[in-house]
Amino acid sequence: MNEHRYRWRNRQLREHVSVMDGHITPTIVLMNATYLNVYMKRWMEAHIWIYDDRIIYVGEELPEENNAIEYVDCSERYLVPGYIEPHSHPFQLYNPHRLAQYASQTGTTTLINDNLVLLFLLETKKAFSLMEDLNDLPVSLYWWSRFDSQSALQEKDALLSDRQVMDWLNHDAVLQGGELTCWPSVLKDDDHVLHWMQEAKRSRKPVEGHFPGASERTLTKMKLLGTDGDHEAMNGKEVWDRLRLGYTVALRYSSIRPDLPKLVQEMKEIGVEVYDRLMFTTDGSTPSFYEQGMIDTCISIALEQGIPEVEAYCMSSYNVAKHFGMEHRIGSIGPGRVAHINFLDAKDQPTPVSVLAKGKWVKDRGENKQVGDEFDWQKHELGPLQLDWELTDKDLQFSLPLGLEMVNDVILKPYPIQTELSGNEVNAEDEAFLMLMDRDGEWKVNSLLKGFTTSLGGLVSSYSNTGDIIVIGKNKEDMRLAFERMKEIGGGIVLSHHGHIIYELPLPIQGMMSDMPMESLIEKAKEYQRIVEEHGFPFGDPVYTLLFLSSTHLPFIRITPKGIMDVKKKEVLFPAIMR
């Protein structure tokens, strides 16, 4: 197994020194390279020696000639460190394996990942075993440790206990605590989460905030409580405020918040001239958003907006590594670093023509060279979803006086239901039945959803923030049909209309993730969006709508495992009903 994520063994370290002494031959020598030295913040020329997954030497010397060495003339290329995604949610229909494969093709060779779905699906030791196997990929995968579930669960302690959180924080592949979607509770009186924040600090790991629209006072208080970074700035002044107070700021360009062009323009107008505490994130965008790339796209936007090229490349690599205390391993082209290197045609063209990841060619002159296409999810007990319960007539009874109205893709507000609900259909134009069903069939929450569709008969999704089942539709028979088909395919998103299945996306990894290549998944996600838009969906990202229906870090009302919840007051307005 590749050991680089945690440490190289003593034997390997001795071998690396022996390469310098000429006793062992480098595996690759990159000759005549013009590369970005992030420490000097300038382009320099050198020969670069690589042995297995590590950069051994960067300088003027060449090793003794040997036929076993792969020599690469880089005189017509510009070399930069592999890009780092500092805030990845690798479960947005895709899975960590497929996302990493795809990201590497445009130069993102390190992803720092949310662990929330692993908390829902696996015991801690099994999650760590999965992470070990994912480490065999050329791409480097690191993780966060969540401190809250991002919803109101019936058994919160079963998901996040002291033992679980500490096991995660103490794991070498876990680089930060957070993100703090529960920050209002921390500000008020949640000493439990505050304790975990302090444990993260004790472990020399940063804590990531989640502070959209936060005032100077709130940002200051959360800094006092131990937060180090935030990715929720929505305008240039919010970037300025965070930088001024000592935060590291991830500038976001995502499927629901494509703010980066505006952020950079407004930052420059305000006078931000130092970029050392800035980085980029795509914040777990849904599949189709990645059609044109990942962090390379962010660099292109930054360059177009006038950020100096050296700074833009540092924001995509070295700045991230420094923030997470990983500068000694990733984020630069220098001795001792992991051999993540992007080869560019020009300094202002950040999408690489070739990519080395852990010293292996994953892309060579435009050709995808990856091997190991499959990953054994069944080995980790993450096979198809198996439900042993039915959707009954009793389940399909709706009588609540309060519904959820969509303000945009992810914001919901309450509204009084005045529609007759005793029939088989919802007749009001933009209202639909809404159900959240326990994955194990033990409880349900029924209401109406306003603003999602004007005509769609039924939608069933096992993809959700909590892993429970979402049912939406204007016709109960279509909803039942979609539910049965979702069960048959082992989990997924299924749409039905007028008695016919009109779309299905199988999610065979516990009903949460696809295992198809990203290119195929992107097309399926685009098809889903097209169909729901044809049935009246008026917003931009209907995948995120499904994910965030239960997410209590967003205003104003949510449908959660505990029931219909007022987020601000943290009150359950109508509790879940046991089946």
| Total number of strands | 29
Instruction: Assess the beta-strand content as a share of residues.
Output: 25-35%
Class by SSE composition: alpha/beta
Number of helices: 17
What integer value in Å does the Rg equal? 25 Å
The low-pLDDT segments are none
Helix content: 25-40%
In terms of quaternary structure, what is this?
A: single chain
Summarize the structure in words.
This protein has 579 residues and is an alpha/beta fold. Helices cover 27% and strands 25% of the residues. The strands form five sheets. Strands 1, 2, 3, 4, 5, 14, 15, 16 and 17 form a nine-stranded mixed sheet that branches. A hairpin with a 2-residue loop joins strand 24 and strand 25 (500-506). The protein is globular and about 85 Å long. The model has no long low-confidence stretch (mean pLDDT 96).
SSE layout:
Blueprint: H1 10-21, E1 28-37, E2 42-51, E3 54-59, E4 70-73, E5 78-81, E6 83-88, H2 96-104, E7 108-113, H3 116-121, H4 124-134, E8 140-145, H5 156-159, H6 162-169, E9 174-178, H7 183-188, H8 191-202, E10 207-208, H9 216-224, E11 229-230, H10 236-244, E12 248-252, H11 260-270, E13 278-281, H12 295-304, H13 309-315, H14 318-323, E14 341-344, E15 354-357, E16 360-364, E17 367-368, E18 402-406, E19 412-416, E20 431-437, E21 443-450, E22 458-461, E23 469-473, H15 476-488, E24 492-497, E25 500-506, H16 518-534, H17 542-548, E26 557-560, E27 563-566, E28 571-575, E29 577-578
Parallel strand pairs: 1-4, 1-5, 6-7, 7-8, 8-9, 9-10, 11-12, 12-13, 18-21
Antiparallel strand pairs: 1-2, 2-3, 5-14, 14-15, 15-16, 16-17, 18-19, 20-21, 20-23, 21-29, 22-23, 22-24, 24-25, 26-27, 27-28
